[in-house]
Amino acid sequence: MGDEADGVLYSAMYYQQKLAPVILVSGDVDHANSSKILLMELGVPEDAIILQSDAANLRQDVSRSLDIIREKEIKSIILVTSALKMDRTMFLLRENSLTITPAPTNYQVTLNDWQNLTDWKWQDIVTHLLPTSASLEQTSQTLWEYFGLTYYRIRAIF
Q1: What are 88-104's pLDDT values in tens digits?
Q2: What distance, in Å, lies between the first and last C-alpha atoms of the chain?
Q3: Quick one: pLDDT band at residue 2, thresholds 50, 70, 90?
Q4: Which burial class, exposed, middle or buried, applies to 69 when counting CB atoms under 10 A from its CB (0-12, 13-18, 19+)?
Q5: Averaged over 128-152, what is the pLDDT?
Q6: Residue ranges per structural domain of the chain
Q7: pLDDT at site 103
Q8: Closest by alpha carbon to 39, among 62, 21, 23, 26?
Q9: Domain 1-107: CATH class, spelled out
Q10: How far apart are CA 31 and CA 60, in angstroms?
């Protein structure tokens, strides 16, 4: 499951702490099904898991998830998603009467990473200037999120 496993673990924790009576899992079919299996292995009963796997992009995902939330008459949610996608998802949810508690996961930069990046040893500075495949992937994901958020904001104006 990779990075998405953090979201599943946190969702199960919120359920077990009785903060979330149901868990709505969204994403593609493979992600939704594997998340459901993992949630059940973590002790979440099947009837407390709602799957929404019929969306091609984040906008459709939010729209279809909102349909389910309205149908179930849910008034507040804990939004568990990657820290990278949180702003864009919150923006798409902005015009609803839901009470939303953001619960970001999968942070790409930790305090330890930041301290290593800001260490002023000349050897570290030189190595930090060299690109890595992980850094290029993070840059690509970050730009995708910023472009997506910009697109949705411009679209909201017109």
Answers
A1: 999 999 878 899 999 99
A2: 38
A3: low
A4: buried
A5: 87
A6: 1-107, 110-158
A7: 95
A8: 23
A9: alpha beta
A10: 16
